[in-house]
Every structure is written in structure tokens, then in C-alpha cells.
Amino acid sequence: MRVTVSRKAHFNAAHRLYRKDWSNEQNDTIFGKCNNANFHGHNYELTVSVTGGIDPETGYVIDTKILSDLIKVHIEDAFDHKNLNLDVPEFAELNPTAENIVVVIWQKLRAHIHADKDLEVTLYETPRNFVTFKGE
Amino acid sequence: MRVTVSRKAHFNAAHRLYRKDWSNEQNDTIFGKCNNANFHGHNYELTVSVTGGIDPETGYVIDTKILSDLIKVHIEDAFDHKNLNLDVPEFAELNPTAENIVVVIWQKLRAHIHADKDLEVTLYETPRNFVTFKGE
Amino acid sequence: MRVTVSRKAHFNAAHRLYRKDWSNEQNDTIFGKCNNANFHGHNYELTVSVTGGIDPETGYVIDTKILSDLIKVHIEDAFDHKNLNLDVPEFAELNPTAENIVVVIWQKLRAHIHADKDLEVTLYETPRNFVTFKGE
Amino acid sequence: MRVTVSRKAHFNAAHRLYRKDWSNEQNDTIFGKCNNANFHGHNYELTVSVTGGIDPETGYVIDTKILSDLIKVHIEDAFDHKNLNLDVPEFAELNPTAENIVVVIWQKLRAHIHADKDLEVTLYETPRNFVTFKGE
Amino acid sequence: MRVTVSRKAHFNAAHRLYRKDWSNEQNDTIFGKCNNANFHGHNYELTVSVTGGIDPETGYVIDTKILSDLIKVHIEDAFDHKNLNLDVPEFAELNPTAENIVVVIWQKLRAHIHADKDLEVTLYETPRNFVTFKGE
Amino acid sequence: MRVTVSRKAHFNAAHRLYRKDWSNEQNDTIFGKCNNANFHGHNYELTVSVTGGIDPETGYVIDTKILSDLIKVHIEDAFDHKNLNLDVPEFAELNPTAENIVVVIWQKLRAHIHADKDLEVTLYETPRNFVTFKGE
To answer: Residue C32: closest CA among chain F residues belongs to which residue?
Structure first.
């Protein structure tokens, strides 16, 4: 019997969507107002979901306190109140679209979740736009 | 690496649940107060989810501006502030239950999403009742 | 010490915004797509707030069970799954704008709330549009 | 064509996380403040999802009125305003973690949903922590 | 120019509504299933609102970090994962209705907010029931 | 009879809290991580509330389409996908705290709302922090 345990978290950040190797016209055409050279920002809302068997001793798949601490150390401390393009090494050469951010978050957390558990991450960039990655 | 990109939208509409080929008693038995001959209505809230590979050029699976425009043209303009039974051709002979509406929405959007991407639609009829169709 | 006790409720209804004594052109100019002759509809979400002193015996301003029953009998039973224009007597000659609906709801409930308590009603017509009336 | 129909419900309950066969120190180490001997509590929010083919007669996978009644009789009446450890037989010897509660709810409902339909249950213990079980 | 700054917080707790000086029948009549002798519980969601002039130096009415810390120390640490009747001294002789809880929270915070600022507290006992106290 | 009509809107923006005339140490002490020189950002969610008498002709206090257009032209077009410090003239010399932003929004809208109507603006900087200004 496999149960999914989900925990919500959040961070605020600035970002800009563009490619350094494109002209500004090309960036404007593809990324529109998201290419503002002075940046814009979001309240990113995060759901991290871990699926696995229930430990018969504790009744837990994963202690949500442990899951919450993992998210704090590896995601919130790294991304919160940051400029994703300038302050976060993973996006030095990677365009911080929601799709790329959710994959980076998944990869950072995957290393800390036991291999017999599945991991899925959903990231809300706004209350109306969100992305999901399950490592497939 | 396949990521799901989701976009929320909404429309308001009137509808009535009933079958023309049933007696009013039969319609009342099955559809209860949803068979009010004068119609009732809902704020339908929609989530459209597209799953595909990340374009390495743009970092997008699909530009949410493009997805949002598709939803506007094919769903909102067709359904918003309408009577589903009387104003929307797809429901002239099809009972507009939430299940049938979500399938119609999926079919209308499927034609405009590239075949190598998966499509899933969730439709909230009320904040407490919702349906999901993924074309399977 | 006066405390406000609030209770949420909801109903679904169809309606149409128009005046019988105006031409269709005039109605279209003022009410736009809300003037669809076949009606459209909403999930109306309601918050009813009663302000008064705390009864030292019970610790209640008003028992939320009693408040909830008042809303059910006087509002939900009268409005839910109805066509406001055709099925609800209060709107036979009154345009069912959100403003007019919230005043009608307030008046219907006011008669059943003790005079030494204040009453305020908020009505969400959509998750983005809402109105409030406090009887002033 | 299989569509998923989901219905939300809720109940309030007290509980305590601990094992009778562990020392209080061991319980404190694993369950922390959730091991308060005087109990704490939650507003549990529930989503019950049933997946199946659309009945061509009614346009329903399952009538949400029937689904809502099943949840009321088998879950809300059994759990609402209860102490899960002391008042609910299923947890007399089973630690009422969110994971164990969602499996019990799924099992209680599974008996009443037709075998050709799939069942999934999501349980929010808080607005930030939730679990999902689909019987696999 | 006076601006209101609001901060949300939350705590989980068990409680029981009853009066020790009433018979069990009397308690059942008034408090119904809230009088379960084994307790039930809630996720209490809190909004604390402070109104005052904007400090021209900082642009703040009150630093939300300071407000958040006040709520943590005086409310969350005192109430979270507690049994309000048994573990919280303020309710040893006071029935922990939502009305009484919100007044106690207001009183505990009032002592720590500068006298030239107004304080209002809203407490959600469930997502559908909430109370507000502004000290009047 | 005065009714309040409220409309929600939103914009995304980057900002930084600091005073040019303070040392970086002083800015760090007061504004903490909000003083990141590379900026951070938010999804600002806005509620604009207009209170006035109901026009007996239309049943409206204010047409929400007109209100929505005012918010779009004067607030969303000016603030959305912008860096508040660098791109918005009102904050060239004014620290863009939530308090200062809500006052600026109120002042920009006040000029376009008839003088016999009251105006109140609520601005969510995050889902947990918000501010309200009513021009008093």
C-alpha cells in the first residue's frame, strides 16, 4: 500500500526570462514582458509529494517535519528573497522558466529522498499558472 | 524529461440537466433540482494541463500566453455568459453534465495541441464538485 | 465586548441582467453579455456576519447552527438551483444585479436576527467580484 | 472514455499520535508535539475521486448526490466531532496518522463503489499537509 | 494616513464546548456534538490586523517580521497542538467557543502592540465559520 | 442604502526595500533579506472596493467592467512585470513597502472614482501578508 504525502511551501523571488545568446528583439518576441531587463517577480508556491509504503512502526511514509526541513534547507534557503538569475547558481546559464525551476527543485530534493520513494514537485508561479515534474 | 504546464481559466453559464426523450417525472427522479425548466447556473473554473518535453531553446513546454489564448478563443468565447443547452451547439443533443462538458472541452482543445503532448482538463462545476478527463 | 460571528454558505442560480422597460439595444449597451436572453449563471458564495455581545452563559454571540439553519431556510431553499428572474418573487420586477441580490438577502435575514445585533452580508458573484451590504 | 468525478467533504476531529507499546520518551522522539496526551485536532478536508465510464443515459459517471451521501454516512457521521483514538473503532489499535486515516477512509468507501470504477482519496490534515491513496 | 497591516498564522488544537456547572443533558442541548467528552479539534487560522500611521523613515506601520514573531510567541507557542480546555490556563474556567478564543487572543496581543495602533483579530474555526474582535 | 462593490486583480513585480540615504548595514538591520541588492518579487493580489448608493436605473453601484478597466489601465499596465524601484516613477524616491504601494494605488484610483463614493484598497504582498488603505 503506497500513500502520497504532500507538503506545501513557498518562496519569493525575482527573475527575468531571456537568453544571453539571443538579441533583445528575439528575447522580446519570445518572452514578451517577462524579458524586462530590470526583472519582475513572483510568490512561488510549492507542493512536494513523496510516495512510498507506510512504515508499520510509525504509520508514516515520511515525517512531514523531516520533509518540511528538507524543503527549507535545500529550496527556501536557496531561493527565497533571491534574484534567480543573479543569485542562484543553477540559473547562471539556465533560463528560469517555471519548467526549468521545477526540474531544478526536483533534482535538488531527489538526492535527499530514499530511492524506493517517488517524488513529484508542483510549482505555482502565479495562482493561475503552475507546472509539475515527476522525474519521468 | 516531461513537465506538465497548467493554466487556470473560467466561464459563467446557465444549464439544465435533462433528457428530451424522458418524461418530466423521470428527469426529476434522476436529475432532481438540476432539472429546473428555467435553468440554474455555475461559475465554471477550468484547469488545462499540457504535458511534454521542455524546448531547450526557450525553456518552455508551451508558452502559457499561447495556452491562455487557445482557452480564450475555443472555450471562454464559446461558453462564457451562455446557456449551455440553448446557446452551445455541442449540447443541443447532449446533456450538459460536468462529465460531458469536460469531454467536450478536451476535444475542442485537443485539436490545437501538438500530438506529442498530452492533454488533461479539470472542470470545477462548484468549489466542491469537479471532474477530470485525460482522453483515455 | 462585541464580536462578529460569520458563516459561509452558497447557492447556484441562473439570472439575466436587463430592464423590461428598456429596448434590447439599451440593455445590451449597459449590461453587455449579462443581457443574454437565455440566461447565464453563477455559484454564489455568501458570508453572513452577525455582531453582538457574547452571551456569558454559552460563550456564543449566536449559535452557528442556528445561523446556518436561518441561511438554509430563508436563502438557500429560496435561491438554490433557481432562475432568479423567473423563480424568485423578489426579482420579478427588480434587476438581479449582485447589489440588488445582497440587499434582498440582508432584508430576508434581518427579520430573523435579534434587533440588538448588527447584520452584514457579503455575496461573491464570482471569485473575483463581490458585494457587501450592512444595512446603512 | 473514463472521467474522474471528485467531491469535497470535511470533518473535525481530535487525535493523538503515539504507540501504546512505546515509552513516552520514544513517542516524544518520533511524534513530538503530536504526542500530547490531552490530544490536539484538525479540520480534515477530504476529496473523494471516482473514475469510470460515462453512463450514456444520464451523462454521469456517478451522481454526486449519491457520492456525497456515501461520504456523509460512512465518513462524516463516523468521524466528525470525534476523538479518532477513543471514539473510532478502526483506530483503537492503529495510530491515526494522516496516512493511516486516508487508507481507512478509502477502505470504508471502496465497499460501496462499483468494482469497475477506480477510487482515490485525498485527505488534508492541515491546509499545508495532505495525503493521497488510490488503493495500489 | 492610517494603513492596516495584516498577518496570517495558524495553530491546531483540541477542545470541547461545555460548562462544568451544567448537567450533561443541558450541555448536549446547547452544544450538541461539540460537547463530546473525548474532545474534537480544529485547524484554527488567524488573521491579526494592526492599524496605524506609516513610519516615514521605514515605510512600515509595523514590521511584519515583528508582528509574526509576536503571534508565534504569544499565540502559536501557547495554543498549537494543545487541548484548549486542559492545557491552556485562560480556558480553565472559560468555555473555549470561537468567540471566547478570539477575545483571549486579542487580549494577549494587545499588551504588545503600541497604544496608538488599533488591533483586530479574525479567527477561522473552520473554513466556513469565523469570528472577529476589534476590542470594542 | 450604500453597497460596497469589490473587484480582484493582480500584478507581478520585483522590488527591493531600502533607503538610498542609509548605509547598507542600516538597511540590512531594518529590511533584512528584503534589502537584496538584486531584488526579489511578488505576485501582488489586489482588491478594490467602491462603496456608494445603488443606481435605481441600472441596479449598479459601479459597473464592474468599468472598475476592472480602471484597474487595468491605472494599476496593472503601470505595475505588472515591472521593477517597482526602477520602472515605476512613484517609487523613484519612495520605499516600495506594501504600505506605500497600497497608498499609491489608492491615490491613482481615487482620481477616477466619483467623489460621492468611498474607496478602499487591499493589497496582498504574499498569501499571508496584506495591507488595507481607505484614505483616512
So the answer is: F65
Q: What is the ipTM of this complex?
A: 0.96
Tell me the pLDDT tens digit for each residue of C11-30: 999 999 999 999 999 999 99
Contact D12 E36 (CB under 8 A): no
Q: Is A21 on the interface with B (CB under 8 A)?
A: no
Task: Determine the Cα–Cα distance for residues B64 and B3; give it in Å rounded to an integer.
Answer: 13
Looking at residue F114, its pLDDT comes to 97
Is D56 within 8 Å of chain B by CB?
no
For residue C85, give its domain range: 2-133
Q: Are strands B2-15 and B82-83 parallel, antiparallel or unpaired?
A: parallel
Which of F36, F80, F82 minimises the CB distance to A81?
Answer: F36
E90 reaches D (C-beta below 8 A): no
Q: With an 8 Å Cβ cutoff, is B110 touching chain C?
A: no
Cβ-count burial F21-60 (b if 16+ within 10 Å, e if not)? ebeeeebeebbeebbbebbbbbbbbbbbbbbbebeeebbb
Summarize pLDDT for A6-35 with one digit per residue, the tens: 999 999 999 999 999 999 999 999 999 999
Q: Report CB contact under 8 Å: A7, D129.
A: yes
Chain F, nearest residue to A85 by Cα: F38
**D108, D109, D110, D112: CA torsion to nearest 10:** 110
What is the CATH number for F94?
Answer: 3.30.479.10
Reported confidence tier of residue A118, pLDDT bands at 50, 70, 90: very high
The count of structural domains within chain B is 1
Helix, strand, coil percentages (3-state) for chain D, rounded to 5, are: 35, 30, 30
State residue D79 phi and psi, 5-degree precision: -115, -25
Strand-pair category, A2-15 with A82-83: parallel
List the subunits that have 3+ CB pairs under 8 angstroms with D: A, B, E
Q: Give the model confidence (pLDDT) of D26-57 as tens digits.
A: 999 999 999 999 999 999 999 999 999 999 99
Question: What is the rounded (10 degree) CA torsion for E5, C128, C63, C65?
Answer: -150
